[in-house]
Every structure is written in structure tokens, then in C-alpha cells.
Amino acid sequence: MATFAKSSFNAAIYAAARPTYSPKLFEYIHEYYKNQPLGSSARWDRAVDVGCGTGQAASHLDGVFKEVVCVDPSAGMLDKAREFLLNKPRSTLGQASTRTSATDATANTKFTFAQGSAEDIPSTQEGSVDLLIAAQACHWFDWQKVWPEAKRVLRPQGGVAAFWVYGESRLSSFPSLTPRITEFWQGTDRGSTTSVGAYFQRPGRTVLERLLVDVPAPSAVLPGDVGLVDFQRLYFTDDKRDIPDISLTDAPQIVHPTIMKVDWRWIDVLGYLRTSSALHSYHEAFPEDKKHSNDTRFLERDLADIEVRGNEMVDPSMVGGGDIAVRFWKDLREGVQNELGQGAGLFDKVMVEWPVAMLLVRRG
């Protein structure tokens, strides 16, 4: 996570190239939240997004809660979240319908921002939070501190925490390429010319790859304490083999179909690869890789496509070079070309999907 806090990490590029979250994910969260304990009713006063990053998840709470507090340890990420959330069009409140009805939606959500962590949420009073979320951040958490902190800030008798991550990407229609994808992201050789896996920060990345099965249940951290109840582990995947340990008994394990997928152009896939924190760290260790000679596969065709489709606003320099990301990207395109005989052009589209794991818990 320290990579995101470095001044050399470009939060704007990161925000532009990452996948966004399906509204269906928030429908699950809101349904769980609305199912309040007997004698309680859902309140829509305050939500907190810890590890908010660029504000993508928090934006889904616009029009749902009166106040959304965005917390992140990185000043650069907070700046980007502030820019995104305060300047985004407010003409539609599409997520509000997941509350009760559009008529009681909150028209003017107040976004506030604070630098801090999930282990010690700043300026948050005890029992003041209706919904606590963390999107693609909870694999970094110290759960011996986060579960007690969640208990402290959540509203008694109904406040909810929802923490989720998306795991390893894959090309939906090309399972034959999954081993190459796994090698690139999970290789362990720090001197590799084909993998950046050794440059992810561990153990956080491992927790993500294993879809949060290594996160202890609240009851394991707070034994005998009924402060956090109704703990659930949810998975959104079409392949149960994504889940390393489906036999966990500390919570119901509920599997739903894949909901995080996107139809990307190949140039978009390259943009996504460029946002990897591991790639950033790899190039700090091997700056000469950025000057690697051109990988000429597809290059002439790509440059011709860019010239023909000038309105796509793609910088030709994006597809040149031969660094580790470009080599991997072209390995995938070559695999698709070999399998189909087509579909590997710069502006051709390919379906990318990610399994999602989510933890839900309620304040007792």
C-alpha cells in the first residue's frame, strides 16, 4: 500500500484505467443493510469509506447517505477523490433507488475527506456510522485493530460494515491464457523478465489473491464479544475454484455469479496493466526495462490503426517500447490471435473479468 503514497505514483492515471464497481454489488450491500434487527430501522445519515482511493466506491453512495466520509492514508489519492466526487455531475442519483424509493433519496450528499487509516478512523465518534465500507483496500488491514475499530464506530443495533476486493483478472473467453496471467501477477522471482509478482507488497497481495479467506472472523479477534454479528463471506464468481477454502466454518459462504466484468479494447487492457503497483515497483528496481527495445509484434498494425482512427485520441507512444508490461500484453494478444485468427487488434474488444470476495458484518 505504501506504493500508492509515493509522490511518483500517478493517482489520476490509476483512476482512469481501473475497472469500476457494478451497481449490483451495492444492491447486495444495501439489502443486507436494510434487513435491520427487530426494533431498529435503517438510517441513512453517515457512511465512511476507508481506503477510499480515488473515490470510485464512495460515488455509489451519492444520493443514498446524507454524509460520506472518505478516508485514505495517501494524500494523492484523497486529492483525486476530492476532485472526482466534488466535480462529478449530480443530475442523476441512480443508486438512490436501492434505498427505499427515489422520493426519499438524499439529494445533496455531503462528501468530506480525511487522511487516516481503517485501524484508527479519524474524527469519527463512537456509534456514529451507519455504513462502513472498504473497496480494494481491506487486504492491507490489521484485523486485530480493524474489527475493534469497526465495533467502535458502527451504530449499535444495525450499523453495517462491508469490505471487498476483486482478485486476479482473466480473459473470460480464453481460459488457456490464465496460466500466463497467473505467472505474470504471481511469479516469485525478483529477477524475472516475465513477471512482476515478486514486487507486490506481501502479505497484503496474498490476502487479495486468496479472496480474503485468510481474514479472521470478528469472533476470532473479539472472542465472546457480541458486538459484531451476522458475519458473512460472499463470493461473486462463476468458478468455485477461485475460492481457496470453501470449507471455512466461521461464517456462511454464499456464492453468486460473476458481477465484475468489462468489455475492454486491447489498448484499455494495456492502460490497466500500467496502473499496477507491482509494475511501478518493478521499474524502480529495473529502470532500464522501461528503455527495452521495441517489441515489434503487432506494432506496425497498431500504428496504422491509430492513424486511421485518429478520433480515438490514442498516443502512438503508448504502444511502442518493449517493457515487461508491453511484452505481457502482446503475449496475451498473440494467444488470442493464435486461438481465433482474429480479435487481437488494438481496438478489438476482449472481455475481462475478476472474482470478487466480500465480508459483511452487522453491529449488535
UniProtKB/TrEMBL annotation:
Gene3D superfamilies per record? Vaccinia Virus protein VP39
Q: Which InterPro entries match?
A: Diverse_substrate_MTase (IPR051052), Methyltransf_11 (IPR013216), SAM-dependent_MTases_sf (IPR029063)
Asked if the Swiss-Prot or TrEMBL record annotates the protein with the keyword Coiled coil, the reply is no
Claim: Transcription is one of the keywords in the record? no
Q: So which domain of life are we looking at?
A: Eukaryota
Q: Which GO terms describe its biological process?
A: methylation
What CDD domains has UniProt attached to this entry?
AdoMet_MTases (cd02440)
Q: Which keywords does this Swiss-Prot/TrEMBL entry list?
A: Methyltransferase, Transferase
A GO molecular-function annotation:
S-adenosylmethionine-dependent methyltransferase activity
Occurrences of domain Methyltransferase type (ranges): 48-160
Q: What PANTHER family does the database record attribute to this sequence? A: METHYLTRANSF_11 DOMAIN-CONTAINING PROTEIN, METHYLTRANSFERASE TYPE 11 DOMAIN-CONTAINING PROTEIN
- Similarity comment text for this entry: Belongs to the methyltransferase superfamily.
Name listed for the protein in its UniProt record: S-adenosyl-L-methionine-dependent methyltransferase
